Amino acid sequence: MTVGTNAVKRDAHDKVVGAAHYPGDLAASDALVAKVVFSNEPHARMVSMDLSAALDVRGVVEIVTAADIPMNEYGLTMFDQPVLIGVDSTSRSKVPSDVSRWEADHVAVVIAETDAAALTGARAIDITWEQLPLAPDIDSADDAAVLIHPENGLSSNTYYQFKIRKGDMNAGWALADVVVEGSYTLPHQEHAYLQPEAAVAYVDEEDRITVQIAGQWTHEDQEQIAHALDVPLDTIRVIYPAIGGAFGGREDMTLQIVMAAAVRKLHARGIDRQVRALWNREESIVGHHKRHRAQITARWGATREGKIVAVEAAAALDAGAYNYTSNKVLANLHLSLTGPYDIPNVQVDSRAVYTTSVPGGAFRGFGGPQGSFVTEMQMNKVAEALGMDPFAIRLANVLHDGDDYVTQRPMPDGVSIETVLERCAEAATWESPMTDPAQVTPIKTLGVSRSVSTGRGMACALKNVGFSMGFPERCEADVTLSGDDEIEAAHIAHAGADVGQGAHTAFLQMTAEAVGISLDRVTGTFSDTATSGDSGSASASRMTFMSGNSILGAAEEALKAWNDGDRPAMGHFRYVPPPTEPIDDATGEGWPIFAFGYVAEVVDVAVDTETGHIRVGTAWCAIDVGKAINPALIRGQVEGAIAQAHGYTLSERLAVVDGRTLNPTLSGYLVPGARDLPDKIETVLIEVPDPIGPWGARGMAEMPFIPYAPAIMAAIHDATGVWFDSFPLTPDRVLEGLGRLAASE
Amino acid sequence: MEGRILEVRISVNGVDHQSDVEPRTLLVHYLRENLSLTGTHVGCETGYCGACTVIVDGRAVKSCTMFAVQADGASIQTVEGVADGDELHPVQEGFWECHGLQCGFCTPGMIMSSIALLEENNDPSEAEIRHGIEGNLCRCTGYHNIVRSVQYAGAKMRGESPQGASQEVSS
């Protein structure tokens, strides 16, 4: 058995000796430098751009502008963003390319011999802007005096909506013995992967414009580049070397298209030198999307026995200046507003709103954290209103196999939320929480404070696996077997991105298992559009699930060919899961999701009511992974997800004001360090097989993030009696909430 | 100062280098660009993330906060110079064995900080380990496996036989 063992990561050796190459490590010594120039204008129309002084700077070789982009638009699910803002565009795109809608919109790429020349050239570009009114947040964007994308023909900045109309709300409210209302504000979050954006680009030996970059979906990058440059797909090649973290933050384009455009323009001039680009941390934080801000209200009704009988909710998602994946994030948020619960009467309205602020997009959980925060807060508040145990009230409402989802179609088989909750409660000994504050000191150097209160909280969630809502989900793999009488070696070619999670190691393990040979006889070629079919992205907790099924199919084909006498024997397979469908516009009915993962968490916290500091003692996470392909890597995903959720909940406060990010540094935006995290993370891996998962595996890497924030809020409430409906809970906000500090705004 | 070139003599991983550098060249850029030692990473250029940590004359230093000219005459160790031929340093072995890395971008800096910590105290408590690596950010792992990796290395350096993770199997 190779599946189920803790194989060491395939890239671990290179990474501990410093031999792994990230995109910033690849450039040839004579590479040209590309400097991407940001507009620095949250909302303005370009009147003129004069490049003459910039082109005169010694060492500046070329400048790429909007005129060089034949189809000046891009976007993962909607082409609504110009590649370059400019006045000289001849593109056929209907998106006006002379308007900057985000401070990090790109206006030009200066290509030079040195970094210094590129920077000097960038500063010498003379642009005249006509200021347009800002609509930097949902409230101001709702006042439709300013339309950010008038080209879409809509009369407001709300451009995407979902509804749920299930059951009979009046009947639901009539049954309710208690009604709980809440209004919640969810913050931005920055990915803060340690490797800032970087790329090298060149024309390869087969005349393909080639971009080596860190991304999450090679073939999507290739398609976006080919679309914008209006060239055939096979003239573009995308390769991922080592990737320094992603978490959703590399799902959209940053340097991909502009680097390809730079190489194309140089090539046309007869210059075939490599081009490199590297963002600093400030450019990285200003220049890529964030986890969405959102405003959500909810009203829940429950019977005295704890049965939730009515849920009404309304959500507004700040999409920022461009869609990115906001419509898909909105769908996930929308459906998670009822969580893993069977609720008879539901009315939900969700919408995405364009603003002149940083775009929201993919980030671990993809709408789940925002929606589930509200759901779990409401559930915990209902429990309090009824005097019920938070664990018991969940058990009274959870979905089971055979139940309908909120979309009024059956849940995919393998619903395990009840088991997950029970195992979590058991591991945490739910009935006997930590009571000794001395176990946890919010500020270690101060010792135990007498003002410390402790508390315990619980939350749970489900999260969809894979692209949902009718997206044509698929994943390809190629397996080659070699040897004479016996299979001596297997090779797997797969495009799937290893963003650090260990995907390539899992691919090798699953290939070994599927072929029936030992792991040391399996090799792989990965993440290159020239050598593999489309895998889909490393996102949506889908990669192990989808790749595993593609590998199983390819191995079966290869074994068939082997038995037919082929040497080497090759197998190709394109896995397609059960097709999903979009939900109905008016009622939300439909079958949008083919598989789910389930998770529950319990946390113990200590709150220093004098200083406002919060310390998390132990966090228990019970998660159904279906089958742990590599348990050690899975535990790493749980611990990493909790660390990110810890920052989201307690310290990561991105200041985006009037469309500008004010603290784009790691000293101003506080990612947890080694001493900030829970004292202990106890992971309980549960294996209830997914009926269509490879070896029963489910997706899992987003799930542990989702219940953490509401579990912390429940524990703080247990400790202090105060509900916090917005976060991050920096000490000043804790003290404000406790009434010990006047509100600052 | 622009255009002025200074000569520095720096020993890196036991090899003496005599190089011409601009006064403004940061040590990390000297290592990466002049010497092509790209194992030392740049994560923030503000001394906060620690991905650029190297050991200068026995002390862990963030090489983005030091000019190359300040290292004139110094002896520097980077992640490329830690292993003894094919034999990994105990700290490298710990990170390998205990799954102490995911994306690996912070790893070289983590390894250098951990080596500096263990050379001072090869039996640190968990709190001392966390204190010792507090200047190095990791966004992937949640630090637990990093702490275990350093504990593994400490045990190895004390001549004990440490426990890795590779034998654990799925339940």
Give a description of the structure.
The complex is a heterodimer of chains A (745) and B (171). Chain A has 745 residues and is an alpha+beta fold. Among the domains of chain A are: 23-133 and 217-280, Aldehyde Oxidoreductase, domain 3; 294-467 and 585-744, Aldehyde Oxidoreductase, domain 4 (2-Layer Sandwich). Chain A has a seven-stranded mixed β-sheet with strand order 3-5-1-12-9-10-11, with helices on both faces. In chain A, strands 7-15-14-13-8 form a five-stranded mixed β-sheet. In chain A, strands 16-21-22-25 form a four-stranded mixed β-sheet. In chain A, helix 6 (218-229) packs across helix 7, helix 10 (368-386) runs parallel beside helix 16 (708-720) and helix 13 (503-515) packs parallel to helix 14 (543-563). The termini of chain A are far apart. Chain B has two domains: 6-80, Beta-grasp domain (Ubiquitin-like (UB roll), Roll), CATH 3.10.20.30; 90-157, [2Fe-2S]-binding domain (DNA polymerase, domain 1, Orthogonal Bundle), CATH 1.10.150.120. Chain B has helices at 27-34, 90-97, 107-120, 126-132, 144-157, and strands at 6-12, 15-21, 53-56, 59-62, 75-77. Chain B has a five-stranded mixed β-sheet with strand order 2-1-5-3-4, sandwiched between helices. In chain B, a hairpin with a 2-residue loop joins strand 1 and strand 2. The termini of chain B are far apart. In chain B, 55% of the residues are buried. Residues 167-171 of chain B have low confidence and may be disordered. The interface between A and B is large, with 63 and 61 residues.
